[in-house]
Amino acid sequence: MPYGEVLRRPSAKVFAAVAVLLLVGAFSLLHADERPATVARVNGVEISRDMFYETLERFTVNGESLGSIALRQLISEALVVQANDRYGLGVDDAAVEAEYEAAARVYGDQLPTLLAQAGLTEERFREEIRLSLILDRLVTRGIEVTEEEIAAFYEEHKDSAFHVPESYYASQILVASEQEAEEILALLADGADFAELRAERSLDKGAWGPVTKSDPIPQNIADAIFSLQVGEVSEPISVGGGGYYLIRLDKIVPEEYLSLDEVRDEIREHLIYSKAPSIEEAVAQLWEEADIQIEWPRYSDLAL
Q1: Does 152 or 30 have the greater pLDDT score?
Q2: Which of 141, 120, 127 lies closest to 97, judged by CA?
Q3: Element (H or E) spanning 207, and its range?
Q4: Is residue 158 part of a domain?
Q5: How far apart are CA 267 and CA 165, in angstroms?
Q6: Residue 263 placed within a domain
Q7: What are the helix and strand counts (H, E) for the chain?
Q8: Are residues 190 and 220 in the same domain?
Q9: Alpha carbons 214 and 130: distance in angstroms, whole number
């Protein structure tokens, strides 16, 4: 098992999923805004905003009206935001902006397009981030992990999660024929520089690495890489279609075990989240503890 897989957090990163609570983006139009009171006119006949919303409420998803889904969503959001002050979780504008900037660094120029595809404005995305941060701190508040638990986890998973196997790095020259590959081998034997020949004559400037003996690479490539000494070049290797590789082994990185000090923080975080309730459980608890009064009779039986 590769390092990190066993430490994967059960909750997604803020910028890995646009919405934390379900259907937020789909029903963001139900938030109060400055949209005109008239949605459209058909041959002069007005379709009002109220008519539009009332029609939306008649549509259903899995037997439930969109109105019920949207109202439940809005109540959940309000409870999450209130939990920030109620429990002193400390999610402020600075924390939100830091996460927004992290998302911008990851997605770069694509972020506006991704937000548009999700039906989110930058302002709404920041609110999504706020909700995610509050929920993250809500589910982990008060959870403690001891050094003994961290050490025990490390020992249990040392040979799987924290073992970095021996890895190999190799360069290649790809040519169109076996004859050309042999010519290049002869030049190398006479002292020619592999990198220069690669730059001048290779049809493919790709490389191999890091690769390990358990990686799924073509067997003939694996046989060459794992049998060479550093600096050695393989015999011509057929790659089909008449092409031939010459593989040079550039570097071998010995296997290692990450120390407890190197992974302590990751283990602590993993153990905290393994003890934490799910987001659904946390939101359900907020509903149970809240005084929720439904003013519209049609939604009087609304439940989480």
Answers
A1: 152
A2: 127
A3: strand 207-211
A4: no
A5: 20
A6: no
A7: 11, 10
A8: yes
A9: 42
